[in-house]
Amino acid sequence: MTDVDVAHAEAPKQRLIAHFTTYYGESGEGRKSNIALAASRIDKTVLAPEDEFSFNDAVGRRTEANGFKTAYIISDGEFVEGIGGGVCQVSSTLYNCALLAGLAITCVRAHSLPVSYVAPSFDAMVSSASDLRFVNTLSAPVTVRMYADGKYLRAEIYGVDEVYIRRRSETVDVLPYPTEYREDATLEAGEEKVDTYGKNGIRSEGWLDYFKDGELEYSLLIRRDVYAPQKQIILRGTHGEDKAGKNAQ
Prior knowledge:
three-stranded antiparallel beta sheet, alpha+beta, 2 domains
């Protein structure tokens, strides 16, 4: 056998070693477009051993000039419209896939509020000031694939090494939401109306469970996070209060 034959024999074929899927079918068109664009810029990324992946480098700045559209984002603890809404679902989906592939996470940050598409302590917030980064610590190159079909976003990692990992999100405390009352002259006195529904915050932990031959080998705590509660706002009617007061006199 020649040296070339030996080298060829020692290069195992890549296979699917991890995958993770999230749903975004009920998103607006702007958000769907942003998800598809970000996923397409990551798709087919190849990482050699010890290479580090950067989400911000791969996807680029979230601006209109770079192809991104307006959709809801989380800013200062509230859901507001902003350029690039939806890209955090792409980073979170990829983050979970990288964890399941056994890659080393070097930079990740939680959102300020819980998100619906992944469990607590398994999200990955990205912005101009926050990145998702991970390193290929496996023995051979890996290939990242991402697909967005308008309903489901799927991340796949192909490689040679394969580990068996399960994610586990633990809620360790619930943070009750506060309620704020605001006067509203368009509602009759005594009438109340919920303007914004509250949502409890949580303290959570993210765990990885490692299995070998179907048996749990060990568990690893990878994160502790705090997600703020969302305030409930109730409107209280004031219309007719002055008139009611005069009639009472």
